[in-house]
Amino acid sequence: MSAIPTMSLLLPAMSLWRREMVRFVRQRSRVIGALGTPFVFWLLIGSGLRNSFQGAGVARPTMDFLEYSFPGTLVLIVLFTAIFSTYSVIEDRREGFLQAVIAAPAPRMAIVLGNVMGSTTLAVIQAMLFLLLAPLSGIPLTIGSVLTLAVVLTIVGMGLSALGFLIAWPMDSTQGFHAVMNLFLIPMWLLSGAFFPASGASRWLTWVMTVNPLTYGVAAVRHALYIGRENATTAPSLTISIAVTIGFALVMIVLAGRVAAAKG
Amino acid sequence: MAAESIVEVASLTHRYGDRVALEGVTLNVDRGAIFALLGPNGSGKTTLFKILTTLLRPTSGTARVAGRDVVAERDRVRGRIGIVFQKPSLDGKLTVLENLTHQGHLYGLWGRELRRRGEEVLEQFCLTDRASDRVETLSGGLQRRVELAKGLLHKPEVLILDEPSTGLDPGARADLMAHLRELRDRHGVTSLLTTHLMDDADRCDCVGILDGGRLVTLGTPAALKTTIGKDVVTINGGNPASLAARANEKFVCKAEVVDGSVRIERERGHEFVPQLIEAFPGEIDSVTVGKPTLDDVFLRQTGHRLWMGGGT
Questions:
Q1: Interchain contact, B87 vs A264, CB within 8 Å
Q2: Is residue B308 part of a domain?
Q3: ipTM for the complex shown
Q4: Mind telling me how many Å the CA of A99 is from chain B's nearest CA?
Q5: Could you tell me the maximum CA-CA distance found in chain B, to the nearest angstrom?
Q6: CA of A161 to nearest chain B CA: how many angstroms apart?
Q7: pLDDT tens across B150-185, in order?
Q8: Do B101 and A99 lie within an 8 Å CB cutoff?
């Protein structure tokens, strides 16, 4: 046992993170699933709605839907990767790998952090790859915007991964996870301003979007994408968006740690 | 010779809701022994395994492993025991060495110490040349050896194994017992295993028989078998029930029908066989005479065969 307390947390966490990386590289289909789906989604829906989209509530009336939905698609990639990664928690439990992790003296928070760091890393790498397409949708990239995005997407990724972990940890079957994904995670994304702005929506939808923490994640990504240039969104502000996103990530990680300690 | 106890279980009871899985189990395991918990499915042995490996809190009673309480000092117990699960716990996508390295990190091992221990266990289980193979490409017997190596990486004092011979062919099972003996003799490691197989239990130093959540008897396999004392004569033939009834009448013995055969416990069984055959000409297909087995002990203690399932 290490004498340094941080070591007893970081050593197992880093080991779990590394395992996620190795497994991801050895399972190519996951790369396609996480990157391909949002790309197709963005291209087909974005192109289809391109002309019918009215830029209400958007700062620049000339903005088309491909451009409008680009930040949301980045968040969708992060969400999908987080879902796929936390899905593996259920598989690890079913296949038996997790039983040895649970029976080890490593702190439960190490299991949470290893998982969250693993899926966040994969999510950010894939989102950054997708970012290369930004100029195609009329968003020029600068060094400043790319770096800011990397930071913002990391925070968004940690929150969503911890949320996924929180849902997946108590589950014994993957069917339940699909239900939660369809009924909760996807609507959470749809109502985050990723797909349509709050200002054009009905009153109750606007209210849901205001309390949806992911609204602030999408807003933060949107701000980051246009950093140092004309602002392309109305509300909420960058400071509020970042603050809520960090707060959400912290709360999710703490809750995930609690859940992991409660079972096993 | 009074040996030190490394596992001390006292009045252990566990309930899943209304169902009683363990009831008032008390037993000690000597340091350096190979101890088998023998029982049918549903006898409570997996529940006991889970409690001893800190994965389940008992409803009442206490359990101490390596001098630590499994509830109050959970993490300390965890660091001192090695676990081999019934279900594989390896990551098939990782290599043998990657699995071991990961396990080491979970137990706080790293750097040179981890590398050294990794090499040691690989060598101990003749896995050195498979170190960079992915686990999913290995045979079941080899995977079980990796599980053992993984469980022993952090030098535990006690190795706890749940149904370790499940899915292994007879050769690999003998191999497993040989490894446990070597661990006992060369490293002083205590092994505690659950099993539903008599011959596994027979190869251990001490056996505790569980049935319906209770510990029915405890002792060395030899001592348990001498409690039966007599030979066991088993007769296969046309009508077991009538055969048993008539044998009881004629020879004043306690003939019973067990699993479609007539079973008689009797001193000097070999002298009894010719009498039986003469008494029931043409009715007997085969007669076997054997020394009592742990199955006979189980039958005596519980009133049913191990394989008929104990239930609760």
A1: no
A2: no
A3: 0.86
A4: 7
A5: 76
A6: 21
A7: 999 999 999 999 999 888 888 888 889 999 999 999
A8: no
